[in-house]
Amino acid sequence: MSDLFDFDQPPSLYAVMGNPVAHSHSPQIHHMFAEQFQLRVDYRKIQVDLGGLPQAVTSFRATGGQGLNITLPFKLDAFRLADEVSPRALLAEAVNTISFTDGDRIIGDNTDGAGICRDIIFNLECPIAGRRVLLVGAGGAVRGVLGPILEAHPDLVVIANRTVDKAVELERHFSSIRNVAGCGLDDLTGEQFDIIINGTSASVTDEIPSIPHTVFAPGALAYDMMYGERPTVFVDWAARHGASQTADGIGMLVEQAAESFAIWHDRTPQTGPVIAALRNARAA
Known about the structure:
Helices cover 37% and strands 23% of the residues. The strands form 2 sheets. The chain has a 6-stranded mixed beta sheet with strand order 2-1-3-5-6-4, sandwiched between helices. The chain has a 6-stranded parallel beta sheet with strand order 9-8-7-10-11-12, with helices on both faces. The protein folds into 2 domains: 12-110 and 252-283, 3-Layer(aba) Sandwich (Rossmann fold); 113-248, NAD(P)-binding Rossmann-like Domain (Rossmann fold, 3-Layer(aba) Sandwich), CATH 3.40.50. It is α/β, with parallel strands linked by helices and 284 residues long. The protein is built from 10 helices and 12 strands. It has helices spanning 26-37, 53-62, 75-81, 87-92, 112-123, 140-151, 164-174, 233-240, 250-265, 272-283, and strands spanning 12-18, 41-47, 65-70, 84-85, 97-100, 106-109, 132-136, 156-161, 180-184, 193-198, 216-224, 245-247. Helix 1 (26-37) crosses helix 9 (250-265), helix 5 (112-123) packs across helix 6 (140-151) and helix 5 (112-123) packs across helix 9.
């Protein structure tokens, strides 16, 4: 009998920690992944008080927890908490996936960049190689995905941010990988890009980043890392101003979760049915 139906064996325990975390689709996603392999998995949401991540992780591990996803605003805290981090987490200086060793060491990884690249390249069938890419924002979300995007061999990556110094700092940090430039939002006038990624949280408050509507090159993809119960205002705005293709962050969410699942279970789930299920549920 498979592990999914072997009730003599307790389910393996995982969770996502964040603040807020009630909106998270991660339990639904990981349970659908587990069903593909007939694994018994108990995946929970845990809201953590600001400053309380170390204690929360210790308590979770003590109750038999085997792995954690970490979401906002704790990815930098998780990076500092980890005893060992993967090269991509080290580059991002942020952790969104935690594993535990038998010796209670905390191993940190970052799957966000792999998630967005797989969604763009494979699900949306939009190559990054040879393209001009604009990343709007210079916070933790952009830092977490920038390395894998650069490693996908774009022609150019521009980071544009309201506070120019933050964009320039990311330029310095990632310049050893590939051609990357940091600038202010006003510097985008007259420039066009093939892939425009909104890495700000503006969509949470139904706002549009202050970028020119002329940034969309012919055939451009507009991608919002945020997602909600309906297409984001950035997605709607981009479609009205010349973007040929638009997408929100649901695909990235599922793809980065699949990367975490593979780290924990050594099995790579199919993501297409899960993305479709989430989008269908939103449309219902």
